[in-house]
Sequence to fold (347 residues):
Amino acid sequence: MSDLKARLVAQALAEGFSKARVARPDAIPQAAGRLADYVGAGRHGQMGWMAERMAWRGDPAALWPEARSVLMLAEVYTPGADPLAVLDERDRGAVSVYAQGRDYHDIVKRRLKRLGRWFVDLTAKEGAAAEIKVFVDTAPVMEKPLAEAAGLGWQGKHTNLLARDLGSWFFLGAIFTTAELAPDAPEASHCGACRACLDICPTRAFPAPYQLDARRCISYLTIEHKGPVTPELRALLGNRIYGCDDCLAVCPWNKFAAEAHEAGYLPRAEAPLLAELAVLDDAAFRARFAGSPVKRIGRDRMVRNVLYAIGNSGDARLRGVAEGLRGDADPAVAEAADWAVARLAAT
Ligand code: B12
Ligand code: SF4
Ligand code: SF4
Fold:
């Protein structure tokens, strides 16, 4: 069996994953309670899907009782340049690193399926075909605690997984299988006294180390939150129009960041001009962001975000663009346009 695991891990690395480690499905008994606390406190905001199927999300063994092992995989997307430099270019929108190239859901899912099929074939040849299910991001699976239990890295004070040999910039994927694979040892925290990620957060989204209130996180506000963002928070978005990287970017463990193997994550273009994005209609928005994760927020939420960035820009040349959207059919866009015009007039 250990030979089976060694061959699976070697194949995962050959597929392009940077690290692969195994946990048992019952390895995260603390997760269900923490998830319940998080949802109970309302920290998931409008992400109602987090409050559904909590019995599965909190317990991988309940999600698929036949599963015996979970292979957790790291897919590195380390940026080639300083991801925070764009925050000073106030006429441009900052799109977080993970969304500057092709959609990782597609790339990782394809890779997971290929690896899974290879494993099923291998076990079938050896006489006992294993079953598998593959997951990346969207299933009711708590990928971070599972990856920590597998020893892929640890959940930092910003709640994301990081590793001494990878840094912070990696996605997670999972293969659940009925095959028995020896679990790896969990990784301990190496954050020590550091609190760089907590201190840089523009919206103070961490009520305590290792805990996030998504309702204050710019990633949530720009990607998940429907309707108007409260004025207190929108003023803190700066020019971030899709996601946020600040807490990942300042982590000192990025000195050891691994290089991305996948060319698909490279930025497709330089940071977009706010004036160009503001005038996109539905069709132009879909064409511009085809194949990118940005596409899923739709034109209205993107233009809402762009107007917040225009309001925060202090750039009077953008006032006319905001004026033109005051009568927009989408109420959140129209309200954001009014706010941007008023804010520019006051600066
Ligand atoms: C919902 C979600 C979000 C939400 C909420 C994030 C959150 N931290 O809860 C929002 C929209 C804000 C978000 C943002 C981002 N996300 Co997100 N998100 C998810 C998703 C779908 C579920 C996460 C979840 O279960 N949250 C619920 C809470 C309860 O779980 P938790 O964060 O693990 O909370 C733990 C801690 O609070 C801890 N804890 C509590 N108290 C204590 C006390 C101590 C002492 C300790 C040690 C721990 C501890 O226990 C909890 C359980 O482990 C996962 C994919 C998945 N299916 O897992 C991706 C995922 C976590 N996101 C990811 C990414 C890349 C991001 C962003 C970086 C994107 C961006 N650039 O904008 C940001 C990062 C923001 C941040 N600092 O977390 C990656 C992270 C990869 C990694 N290396 O960890 C994931 C895994 C997707 C993927 N497949 O790659 N995300
Ligand atoms: S992603 Fe940005 S807003 Fe969210 S917790 Fe990290 S630094 Fe704060
Ligand atoms: S910035 Fe510091 S506290 Fe935050 S995850 Fe990295 S090492 Fe941990």
About this structure: The pocket of iron/sulfur cluster (ligand 2) is lined by residues 158, 201-203, 205, 212, 217-219, 244, 246-247 (CB under 6 Å).
